[in-house]
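Q: What would this chain look like folded?
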Amino acid sequence: MGGVCAAVLCGGVGSRLRPLTYYFQKAMIPVGSKQKPLLEYIILLLRKHNVENVNLLCGYKYQQIVNYFGNGERFNVKINYVIDRKGFRGTGWAVLNAYEGGYFKDFENVLIYYGDILTDINIRDLINYHENLKSTATIAVSKGYRLPVGVAYTEGARIVKFEEKPLINIPVCMGILILRKNAFDVMAEVSRKCINEEYDLMGHLIPELTARRESVYAYETNALWYDVGSTEKYEKLDNNFADTLLEFLEG
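A: My prediction, written as structure tokens:
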């Protein structure tokens, strides 16, 4: 046992991307001037950094993903498909379903990647950082996130300063993290409190790990990244960013 496999979360209905996701699985929306699926960029990034065992955690319209990516041979990776259990909502249930299905059994660590993120993050550097710290969980974070709303600074009810969509200089989660195998015992335990409820990795598991004083670390990076998870963000995605990223990944 050793090494790292990937688990890509691409099973949600993509409600924030409607009406596009009435027709597309959200990870399959076309990106850049070459109109390749968003998920292709993710798989190419993983391959670029030698993560070649990729588990796609699927549900809604998963046939679109299977039909395009097949067994992964065309992309020089091995792809497994893990279909979400009906009636279970949330990222925690999706990952736990894959774990209990034995998809991670040959690996010490699992890199979890939210399927609506474009980035050029150095995955291998993140893995090395995690392994050197022997961390239970390592979360990729970035500073300089631009809020999608305006911020009012007040004295009483009076606004004394207003900033439209300011940059904030605190670490924010990029939607990429690594879990060591011991985290899954905690994940299974937490799940028993979430029966018939949504179970979220960042909302439930990570707070539980920190509360238990497990080793949870932040990996801060200056990598470029973009969350494509809403119609507004998708409309504002610069083709040049996607095209430059694709050139890097295919180079």
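Residues 4-143+170-250 form a domain with the Spore Coat Polysaccharide Biosynthesis Protein SpsA; Chain A fold (CATH 3.90.550.10).
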